[in-house]
Amino acid sequence: MVEAAEAVPWAKPDDLPYDGRLPLPRLGGPTGTFAALFGDGSTGTFRRAAFDDTNLRHCISIGDGNVVSIPGR
User: Global pTM?
Assistant: First the structure.
């Protein structure tokens, strides 16, 4: 789960659209950071600038076999 740049109503959670061929969705807010929740239950706050687009795409994709690098982890 990740913090999107565009808010959705709290009572109506929505998916952040992602298609591997289209531009990446905007993440976080005006500070340039975004929060993320991982499958193991851990959380983190990250600078968007610390992720290049290829690495972020690998982080989003499931089971593609690519190695990811999560800055600060």
Answer: 0.79
